[in-house]
Amino acid sequence: MAAMPAVFGTGDRADLIAKLTEAVAKTITYLGSKNFLHGDEVRFNDFILFELTETINAAREDDGFMTANPTVAAHHARMLALPAFGAYWNSDKALKAPFFPPSMAKIQM
After folding, report:
1. For the chain, how far is it from start to end, CA to CA, in angstroms?
2. What gap in Å lies between CA 14 and CA 34, rounded to an integer?
3. What is the pLDDT of residues 60-96, one digit of tens each?
């Protein structure tokens, strides 16, 4: 939520990236070397981390976030390796953009 003023107010992409990266920092630390946030079983929070990773990558317009955070990159890959989720994500049914309502947001990705 801390990043929303950048999206809907200032349109400052650098601020958006900084706020999102800051917001996910403790989660990355908590993930550590675990397969998923709560060990070996995927939970709802893992999908939120996946979505945040996608949002940060889209805001940055590169994969530098995952390069700088190899544990997040590994988590992202494990999420995509889940048969049902990977099949959905790689299908034309997955809504990957826009991240924010185009008629309201000052930043589009």
Report:
1. 17
2. 30
3. 999 899 999 999 999 999 999 999 999 999 999 998 8
